[in-house]
Automatic annotation (TrEMBL):
Entry annotated with the keyword 4Fe-4S: no
Keywords: DNA-binding, Transcription, Transcription regulation
Alphabetized Pfam families for the sequence: HTH_18
Domain called HTH araC/xylS-type: residue spans: 112-191
InterPro entries documented for this protein: AraC_XylS_family_regulators (IPR050204), HTH_AraC (IPR018060)
Highest taxon listed in the record's lineage: Bacteria
Lineage of origin: Bacteria, Pseudomonadati, Pseudomonadota, Betaproteobacteria, Burkholderiales
Protein name: AraC family transcriptional regulator
Length: 217
């Protein structure tokens, strides 16, 4: 049973949940490293979990939740975005330096070399910022890219799509899809095509807060 207000971190496997009645929700999707300034805890503490906000003791997070609930009940989200924008002003203005291009291209050793640090230091830095070890992050990133291609209405075979997106073969894609989404690639593709209008498959409505020059969203 999901609590009314909760925080989650990066997920590497499905989380089965239920709610007691009709679902109306507002989600804030943040980069993992922003969980620290917002909650006082690292992203890794939320990985694969849904943590009740009432257990965190975060005044800033409580204020955001209250503002979002009041805005939703009033049918006006502008006051909430103003509250969130004010809070976002205290967030780090730039992401932590993790040499992600070198990591994706050549691995942890290359990324550590770019940053001039040891592999051990890089692994600590990466996990602290992203909530996952680099290998797991790369695996999820590769899978998400493949899912984006699955959603496209093209007739590319699953075998070809697998190789195009860095999987060793179709069976490799199938294993990761079952582990991460509890479905086969074929079933996931069918759902994405046949139920494209379903609310759960719609793209998120994104508002960029940090990238604005002033305090307004």
């Amino acid at each position: 049973m999901l609590p009314q207000r909760f925080v989650t971190g990066p997920f590497t496997s499905p989380l089965r949940t239920c709610v007691p009645g009709p679902l109306a929700s507002l989600s804030l999707v943040l980069q993992p490293w922003l969980l620290q300034p917002l909650t006082g805890r690292s992203a890794g503490e939320f990985s694969g979990r849904a943590v009740d906000v009432s257990q965190l003791g975060s005044g800033a997070l409580d204020a955001l939740c209250n503002a979002s609930q009041e805005a939703c009940e009033a049918g006006k989200l502008d006051p909430f975005w103003m509250t969130f924008a004010a809070r976002a002003a205290s967030f780090p203005q730039t992401p932590p330096t993790l040499a992600l291009e070198a990591l994706a291209r050549s691995g942890v050793g290359a990324a550590a070399e770019v940053l001039g640090c040891s592999v051990r230091h890089y692994l600590r830095r990466f996990r602290g910022a992203m909530g996952l070890p680099p290998a797991t992050w790369l695996r999820i990133r590769r899978w998400e890219t493949a899912v984006g291609a699955l959603a496209g209405h093209e007739t590319t075979s699953l075998a070809e799509l697998s190789l195009r997106h860095g999987f060793s073969d179709q069976a490799h894609l199938a294993r990761d899809t079952r582990a991460i989404a509890d479905a086969s690639p074929a079933r996931l593709r069918r759902l994405l095509w046949e139920k494209a209008g379903h609310w759960s498959l719609q793209p998120a409505h994104v508002r960029l807060i940090q990238d604005t020059d002033d305090a307004h969203p």
